[in-house]
Amino acid sequence: MIAIEGGPVVTAAAMRAAEQAHGDLTGLMERAGRGVGEAVRRLAAGAEVLVLCGPGNNGGDGYVAATYLRDMGHRVRVACTDVPRSDLAKAAAARWTGPVEPLADVRSAAILVDAVFGTGLSRPLDATIADPLRRLVEAASLAVAVDLPSGVATDSGALLVEDAPGYALTLALGALKPAHVLQPAMRTMGAIRLVPLGLSAHDLSGAVAMIAPPRLAAPDPDSHKYSRGMVAIVVGQMAGAARLSAEAALRSGAGYAALYGDASELGPAAIVHRPLADMASLDDPRIGAIVIGPGLGRDEAARARLATLIAADRHPLVVDGDALHLLDPATLPDRDCPVILTPHAGEFKAVFGEGSGSVIDRARDAARATGAVVVFKGATTVIANRHRAIVHPGGNSWLSTAGTGDVLTGAIAAMLAGEHGTPIEAAAAGVWLHAEAGRRCGTSFIADDLATALTLTRASL
């Protein structure tokens, strides 16, 4: 049972393919069930365990876990929804020599292990299963889901059961699945930990991965403010939004942040204020990234500024806020300098339409269409380019306050200007810093507090 940062996120079909490529399916089930049993034994502290088994291979994992717990001298009972149907599940069930109770009538236990349905469920959960399952989960002191809670759609994260119960722990088998990182499924899972199965990294390699803390080096002895990255922010109608981005860029590690336009001398004295007589003012070759969008406005002057920056193709761009509503995505694929787009759901729809599939699918489709890195912000944030995606599941719900998106934009721009990896890696580093700063802020904070928290967050790496 290990932490999940940085690991691959694979679909149900990809997981089945990896298991088939491995070949030893019996050995995989043995490792899965034993890993679940070991985790439960450590957490149960001697309390009675009830293992619920379904008819498929997830149920087989449950029978293996129950057998392991019994062999270790633990008090364990088994209930099932139906007789095992797969050959693997039949073989696993044959090793369990105790009684098997019907799900509908079984009494609750302090520790509940749900091995009814795992990866691959696509139909709504029948009430004859959903109702007793909910009763048993709610009665347990500790409820553990094997791979996924029963009633979760693996690839979309949709809930296939009404009033889905909440688990304390979900043990992902072999690799994370999309439902482990997507809402609404994720909110039912509690803590998520990985049970390794010995599948090869090559077989599990995919285009989607869980975010991990970035590796950001400290400035070296020869560093100066420009080598650490200069961020330029175009000021629009709401100068406070641009100021938040500038402060966030500095506190994330940029060496220089300049507001171009009338910002009324807002913000820390470390922020430089420069006039913006025309867009040629931004031709400075020392600029490492330009931010346009926070508080920009949506008038024709704002549209012209955005179009000029895109056409000039002289600097990496971070496009956010109002600029996303003015953006023509068809102007992006031919650019040489990287572009990072940071839309929330409303802005995403304005640029790309509704799209289809999960937020992962939609972000990847948008990145392929534009050649940009797309940071699709939300309950799960997806950072995607044409070839891969990185997901950051969840965060502090108190981030839902004005200005926090402007802070994220500044953090991403600092990573891009400082050349912290490829553009997608720079964007992911900014997302991680922003989320960690939000965690440090706790509750009831404002965007200014979040920007300030980036200082200690950056220092922690």
Question: Tags for this entry?
Answer:
ten-stranded mixed sheet; seven-stranded parallel sheet; Rossmann fold; 2 domains; 14 helices; UDP-N-acetylmuramoyl-L-alanine:D-glutamate ligase; alpha/beta; 461 residues
Which CATH architecture of the largest domain? 3-Layer(aba) Sandwich
Provide the β-strand percentage band: 15-25%
CATH topology of the largest domain: UDP-N-acetylmuramoyl-L-alanine:D-glutamate ligase
What would the principal axes of the Cα set say about the shape? elongated
How would a crystallographer describe the biggest sheet?
A: 10 strands, mixed
Q: What structural category arises from helix and sheet content?
A: alpha/beta
Give the total of beta strands. 17
CATH superfamily placement of the largest domain? Ribokinase
Our Rg estimate from Cα atoms comes to: 25 Å
Helix tally? 14
Percent helix, as a range, is: 25-40%
Arithmetic mean pLDDT: 94
- Distance between termini? 25 Å
Give the domain tally.
2
Task: Please give the CATH class of the largest domain.
Answer: Alpha Beta
Binding site for AMP: 377-381, 405
EC number: 4.2.1.136, 5.1.99.6
Organism: Sphingomonas abaci
Keywords: ATP-binding, Isomerase, Kinase, Lyase, Metal-binding, Multifunctional enzyme, NAD, NADP, Nucleotide-binding, Potassium, Transferase
